[in-house]
Amino acid sequence: MKKSFVVTTLAAFAIVLMMLLTVSIRGNKADQIRINATPEMKAWESRSSEYAKHYPRQYDSYMQTRKSDKVDDVLKDSPALVILWAGYAFSKDYNAPRGHFYMLEDNHNTLRTGAPVDDKTGPQPTACWTCKSPDVPRIIARDGEMEYFTGAWAKYGNEMVNPVGCADCHDPKTMQLSVGRDFLKRALDAEGTLKYANATHQDMRSLVCAQCHVEYYFKPTEWDDKGEKKEAKVVTLPWEKGFSPEQIEAYYDEYGFTDFTNKLSRAPILKAQHPEYETFRTGIHFRKGLSCADCHMPYVREGGVKYSNHHVGSPLDNIANTCLNCHQDTEESFKQLVQQKLERKNELAKAATDALARAHLEAAKAWELGATETEMQPVLQDIRQGQWRWDFAVASHGAFFHAPEETLRTLAGAVNYGQEARVKLRAILAKYGAADYEAPDFSTKEKAQAIVGIDLPKEAAEKTRFLDGLRNEWFKQAAEKGVFDHATRKDMVRKTSY
Questions:
Q1: Which residues pair with 302 in a beta bridge?
Q2: Phi, psi angles (nearest 5°) of residue 161
Q3: Mean pLDDT for the chain?
Q4: pLDDT for 338-363, tens place per residue?
Q5: Is the Cβ–Cβ distance between 403 and 393 less than 8 Å?
Q6: What is the 8-class DSSP label of residue 78?
Q7: pLDDT tens digits, residue range 55-92?
Q8: H or E segment at 381?
Q9: In this structure, is the dihedral angle defined by the CA atoms of residues 265, 270, 274 and 277, taken in order, positive or negative?
Q10: Which of 25, 91, 112, 351 is the most exposed place for a label (fewest CB within 10 A)?
C-alpha cells in the first residue's frame, strides 16, 4: 500500500513537472515567434518607443544607455587640446561621449553647435545632425540626400528630435539590419575590399555602427534644385586609398583638404572625427571575424528567448558575457591586462599632445618675430602630419583595445613629427634672437583658453539662451507633427561642462 502510494505520488509529481515544462516551452516558443515576426511599422518610423511595442526586451536594454550620463570635460583633463584646436570649435567645448540616449541632447548642448536664433543660422551645416538621430534617414528619404545636406544646422531643428535609436540600424519594414546613410555604401564600394552588396549579416553587425563611428569630412558639392544652383556639404568617408591614417592623409592631401587653420601656428590641420571602424579593421578581433555587436551588444538569454543586448557600451562593463566568452582568464586578470594597454597608449598620447602644443606656441612666436612662409612651411607640414596621427589615435574611442599595436605605432609617429617640428622651430627662433623662448603656461583649461582668446562666459550665455528658447520650440513643433518621441526626454537633466 505504501509502495503504491509513493509510486502514484511520484508519477503525479512527474506529470505536473512535464505539464509545467510544456507550458514553459510553449510560452517561450510563442515569445520567440512573436520576436521573430515582422511587425507592421510605418516607413522610416524614428520613434524608438514604437518599436518597444514589439521588442520590449531590446528596447528596455537600449534605455539602459541613459545610465551613462556622466559629463567628463576632456579639455579640463587635457588643456593642451585647447592649443591644438585653437581657432576651431573643439577648443571651446569637448566632452567624452555619453550613452546613445544622450546623443541628441549633447549635440544641442555643446558649444560647438553654437546658438542659432532661427532656422537659417548655424554655425554648423545640416550635416552635423547626421550621426545623432534616426530622423536623419527619415528626412533623407523624404527630402532627398542633397537637400538634406544643404543649409545650416538649425534648418532641421524641429525634425531632428529623437536620439540614436532603432531606425538607425533596422529597416522598419523588414527589421533586418540596414544602412540608411548612403555615404557609407559609396565609401565601401570606393575602397573595394568589401562591396556593400556583398556584405553578410555578420558584416552588417559592424556596418550599421560604421554609419557613425568613422572618419569623415563635409565635401562641398554643387547640385541643381529645379534650376537653382545650390551647394551641399555632403558627409564623405575618405577611404578611396584605404583605411590607415597614412592612406587617409594621402587622400586629403591629394584633394587639398584642411579642416581648419590653427589660430596660433597657422598650420593647416586635419581634425580626426572618431575612426573606430577604421582602427577596428586593423585589430585581431576583426581578423578573427568578430563584429562590433559581438562585443558591444552580446546576446542575452531569458528562458528560451535569445536577443541582442542593446545597452551599447564598453565590453569591460560586462566582461563575463563579452570578453570571457573567448578569453580563458579571470575577470580581474583581464581588467589588469586592458589597463596596461590603456596606460601605454596614454603615455604616448600625452607625449604627443605636449610636443604638438608647444610646437604650435613656438610657431606662433616665430611668426611674431618675422619668420617667412618659406622658413615655416616644413614646420607646418610636420605639425599637420603629427597632429593628424595623434588625433586619429585618440579620437578613436577604445583604440587601445581595438588595435593596440596600430594605435601605439600611430602615436609614435605623432611624437616624432611633433619633435621634428620643435627642432626646426628652435633653429628659426634662434635666427630671430629668441633661442631661449619658452611657451606660455597652458596647464589649465582656463589658461589655455585665455591664450586662444575664448570668451567662455559669453559662449555659455548664448548657448543657454538657445537651449531655453528656440530649442524648446523645436520640440513643441515636432510634437505637433507627431514625430517626437516623448520617452526620449523623460527625466532628462541638462548636464554640461561650461
A1: 305
A2: -125, 5
A3: 93
A4: 999 999 999 999 999 999 999 999 99
A5: no
A6: -
A7: 999 999 999 999 999 999 999 999 999 999 999 999 99
A8: helix 373-394
A9: negative
A10: 25
Residue pLDDT, tens place only, 468-494: 999 999 999 999 999 999 999 998 999
Out of 1-15, 147-161, 357-371, 412-426, which region has the weakest mean confidence (pLDDT)?
Answer: 1-15
> Structure pTM?
0.91
- DSSP output for 159-175: T--S-S-GGGTB-TTT-
Length of the chain, in residues: 498
DSSP letter (8 states) at residue 177: B
Cell of 309: 543586448
How many helices (H) and strands (E) are present in the chain, helices listed first? 21, 6
CA distances from 318 to 72, 95, 325, 495 (A): 21, 24, 11, 26
User: pLDDT by residue (tens digit) across 402-419?
Assistant: 999 999 999 999 999 999
Q: Within its chain, how far is the Cα of 270 from the centroid?
A: 17
Q: Which residues of 124-150 are buried (b: 16+ CB within 10 A; e: fewer)?
A: bbbbbbbbbbbbbbbbbeeeebbbbbb
Give me the pLDDT at residue 38, please.
Answer: 78
d(C-alpha 403, C-alpha 345), whole Å: 11
- Answer positive or negative: Cα dihedral of 122, 123, 125, 131: negative
Over the stretch 179-237, which tens digit does the pLDDT of each residue have?
A: 999 999 999 999 999 999 999 999 999 999 999 999 999 999 999 999 999 999 999 99
Write the DSSP assignment of 11-36 as a string of letters. HHHHHHHHHHHHHHHHHHHHHHHHHH
Would you say the C-alpha torsion 192, 196, 197, 201 has a positive or negative sign? positive
Cis upstream peptide for 123 (omega within 30°): yes
d(CA 175, CA 170): 5
What's the sign of the alpha-carbon dihedral 145, 147, 149, 154? negative
Residue 48, H or E segment: helix 48-52
How far is Cα 415 from Cα 364, in angstroms, rounded to an integer? 20
Q: Which residue has cell 538634406?
A: 148
Contact 266, 217 (CB under 8 A): no
Which H helix or E strand runs over 182?
A: helix 182-191
Topology, domain 58-65+73-481: Flavocytochrome C3; Chain A, domain 2 (1.10.1130)
Of the candidates 236, 249, 148, 166, the residue with the CA atom closest to the CA atom of residue 208: 166
Contacts of 218 (CB under 8 A, 6+ apart): 125, 127, 149, 233, 234, 235, 236
Give Cβ neighbours of residue 162 (< 8 Å, ≥ 6 apart): 46, 47, 48, 104, 133, 134, 135, 483, 484, 485, 488
Name the DSSP letter for residue 73: B
